[in-house]
Amino acid sequence: MVNERPAKIGLLLIGSPRFKQLGEGTEHGTYGERKLIEEKEIIKNLEKMGEVVYTGITYEREDVDKAISAFFNEKVDCVIASYLSWAEDFAWIRFLRNMPEMPVLLASFVREGVYVTDTNDEDQFLDFLSAGALVGVQESSGDFARFNRPMKDTILGTMDVVMEKAKVFIAAAKARSVLRDSTVGLLACFNEAMWSTYLDPYNIFQKVGPELHFLSVAELCDEIEQVTDEELKKVTDEIKASFKFYPNVDYEKFDASVKASIAVEKLSAKYGLDLTVLNDIDTVLFGHVGLRPGFMPTTAESKLTCVPEGDIGNGLATYILRLLSGGKRANFIEPFYIVKNRNCIACGHAGPNDYRGDANGTIVARDERFAKSKWKYAGAPFAWYVFPEGEYTVLHMSENNGKMKMVCLKLTAIPTKHYLASYSHADFVHETLSPEEVWNELIKIGVNQHYGIVPGDYTKEVEQLADMLGFEYHFVG
User: Fold this and answer.
1) Over the stretch 20-55, which tens digit does the pLDDT of each residue have?
2) What are the residues whose beta carbons fall under 8 Å from the beta carbon of 301, sequence distance 6 or more?
3) Where residue 122 sits, what CATH number does that domain have?
4) Based on the domain organization, do 395 and 257 belong to the same domain?
5) Number of domain units in the chain
6) Same domain for 172 and 214?
7) 104-109 β-sheet, strand order
């Protein structure tokens, strides 16, 4: 998975050439020497978030040309730009004109304290000039607006404030880059029972980034045939040792489901997929495979994201949450019903889900929905996962008149027992709104029934990414 590389951060620091040599022999050194101290502090903080690509403080035309070349050649995810004081604006304007489109955050650092009392003192006069970042950011903000580049944002504050914003911006920018290098597979077709989930594949490539491959059930059947007994036993033994089993599990059908799951992962690897969208209620799949593969990931180390029901949009939502959270286990859910008497909403989904987040929260159980169907492995089991307590970011993605739409909210999973057999699930509450208020807002916006979900609060990162991608964005709450 391309997500495993560190973020690449371009850093553009702009200083004034006419100030650079001033202050020689003063207590705190020249303007240039003082700026080297600031430079070091900024780099130290940014290196906590990724690899910094930096060519030195930009003073002259040649400096900005060198920076642009480095950012382009190193394929940075974004650029953090800052005026270190007032400075001539030729370098910044040249950067805005010549730098190819990419996310740019214009940042201004506010000092924790300024102690100028008498500018007749040369050392203090230099400190006065050096502290003038507010002058520089005002000057540069006008150019930033005038060029009207896409994927731009601003922040002014102390080092901690700027870095908190930078952390969100960098995470979103990296996710944007990763999406452009990702590959999605649809196995085997759109879900014809749910037209509301359809997306334009060309639009996905153009607006989101991933390539889309269409995989066939025939290819999956070939992969199933090639899974060896040794491979199957290794995975089934590990699952049996790790998770509880319901008494109604048919172990022959369990083996068949695991075997098909291994095959899904092998087929996905053959195509270099980061996300596999499995239409697991496709009758062709049932007819030839005889079940819904339900044990992806087959190992805890698997990097593949796999979602059910042929919904590419919310498969992408799940994958995006995994990217923005730094690789946390993300899942695919559907709100089932409002539990009015407990003021909560029951959410979850049957089919493939990342069940390995909590061994105590997973039971292997029969697929009750298809247990009495005509298919060969009717009732083949799933990993029945209950989401742990805590805060979750929930994201919906769909298409609206040719434009991609993101709808985001936060929900909290409350203590939940295994009560929806073979459906990964939990009961959720909103911090301030009733379930009716939340879903009234959602249906006003217009959604379908599917969402991605990941533990933690990544709502700022989602909003930042939506802005970078030019998506319609809604936050409920």
Assistant:
1) 999 888 888 999 999 999 999 999 999 999 999 999
2) none
3) 3.40.50.10940
4) yes
5) 2
6) no
7) 50-53, 7-14, 78-83, 104-109, 152-157
Give the C-alpha distances (Å, rounded to integers) separating 86 from 28, 94, 161, 230, 315. Answer: 19, 17, 21, 68, 47
pTM exceeds 0.90: yes
Q: Are residues 216 and 99 in the same domain?
A: no
Q: Which of 154, 179, 204 is the last residue of a domain?
A: 179
pLDDT tens digits along 385-413: 999 999 999 999 999 888 999 999 999 99
Angle between helix axes 159-181 and 31-46 (nearest 10 degrees) is 60
The number of C-alpha atoms within 13 Å of 248 and in the hemisphere containing its C-beta is: 12
Work out the number of other CB atoms within 10 angstroms of the CB of residue 209.
18
Place of tokens 């991605």: 452
Bridge partners of residue 107, in order along the sequence:
155
Closest alpha carbon to 201 in 355, 419, 399? 399
Contact status, residue 44 vs residue 73, Cβ threshold 8 Å: no
**Same domain (yes/no): 164, 235:** no
Q: Which amino acid does the sequence have at 81?
A: A
Instruction: Clarify whether residues 190 and 166 are in a common domain.
Output: no
One domain for residues 229 and 328: yes
Cα–Cα distance, 159 to 277 (Å, whole number): 42
What angle do the packed helices 312-324 and 459-469 form, to 10 degrees?
120
Give the strand pairing for 362-365 and 382-385: antiparallel
Amino acid at 380: A
d(CA 470, CA 32): 39
Host domain of residue 151: 2-179
Same domain? For 252 and 167 the reply is no
